[in-house]
Amino acid sequence: MPFESLDEFLSMGGHALYVWTAYGITFVVIGFLAVWPVRRGRRFLRQEAMRQRREQAPPARLEEPQ
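User: That's the sequence. What structure does it adopt?
Assistant: Structure tokens below.
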């Protein structure tokens, strides 16, 4: 096994700051790329539903001034 203890594994041979920062940034970017399209899709569907309701609603009547 390349590491004798958990402490050695976490220190990554003196490169822990670089290694764990790279892993952290990678997971944040992957998470963003997984969540962003879902949120955009929901927003698109909500906007399309609103647009369709507006198009199907009867036209508003304008009252004549008295």
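Helices lie at 6-11, 16-56.
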